[in-house]
Amino acid sequence: MGSKQKIDTKRIEKAVKEILEAISEDPQREGLKGTPGRVARMYEELFAGLNDDPRRHVEHVFTQHYDEIVLLKDIPFNSMCEHHLLPFMGKAHIGYLPRGKVIGVSKLARIVGSFSQKPQIQERMTTEIAEFLMREVDARGVAVVLEATHTCMTIRGVKKPGSVMVTSAMLGVFRSDARSRAEVMSLLK
Fold first, then answer.
1. Which helix (H) or strand (E) holds 85?
2. Could you report the per-residue pLDDT of 66-83, keeping only the tens digit for each?
3. Which CATH number does 9-46 carry?
4. Percentage of the residues of the chain whose pLDDT score is greater than 90
5. DSSP characters for 23-40?
6. d(CA 52, CA 29)
7. Looking at the predicted structure, is the pLDDT value of residue 1 above 50?
8. Residue 61 burial by Cβ neighbours in a 10 Å radius (0-12, 13-18, 19+)
């Protein structure tokens, strides 16, 4: 686990000041004076996943003979569209079929946070979470479904508020066995 470069908040502050000037605003105006610093701190928070190793959430797994689906639904997440640097937010649903090991339920939510808190696209995030769990938990199968609203589509461009994008990744038995896939999908509804 190599160390990554920290977010350069001073550089972000300078860039935000430049943006304000570029849109003909006065960065010294009372309402905007602290904006560059606030935006820099916000980016530090929103992009915390860039310096997070999700493996830390699976360091402690529990040996448990359990051969049914484990499913956590409605995990809220926020991410930033890497194409427009606008937020997309929604819910993640994660199911896995253990192979002798289970992880704490809160760890599933923390894993979602690790992958969502960086410039991202929903399709890649879905796959990254599924592949990570399949590999790190040694599951027999993993199912990940993300539902999200993208502000890059709702407040600009086509301006279609209420649109929800759904992506899924099915690995292991959830991909190869139609009955297992149908079972996990029925639990998601």
1. none
2. 999 999 999 999 999 999
3. 1.10.286.10
4. 94
5. TT--TTSTTTTTHHHHHH
6. 36
7. no
8. middle
Q: Which residue(s) pair with 166 in the sheet?
A: 147
Residue 144: both structure tokens together = 């990940």
Measure the CA–CA gap between 123 and 82, rounded to whole angstroms.
12
169 vs 175: CA distance, rounded Å: 8
Active site residues: 81-84, 122, 150, 152
Give the domain ranges of the chain. 9-46, 57-188
CATH level 2 (architecture), domain 57-188? 2-Layer Sandwich (3.30)
Run of H or E residues at 88 = strand 87-97
By residue count, the chain amounts to: 189
Structure tokens at 92: 């993640």
The structure tokens 């908040």 sit at 9
* Same fold flag, 9-46 and 57-188: no
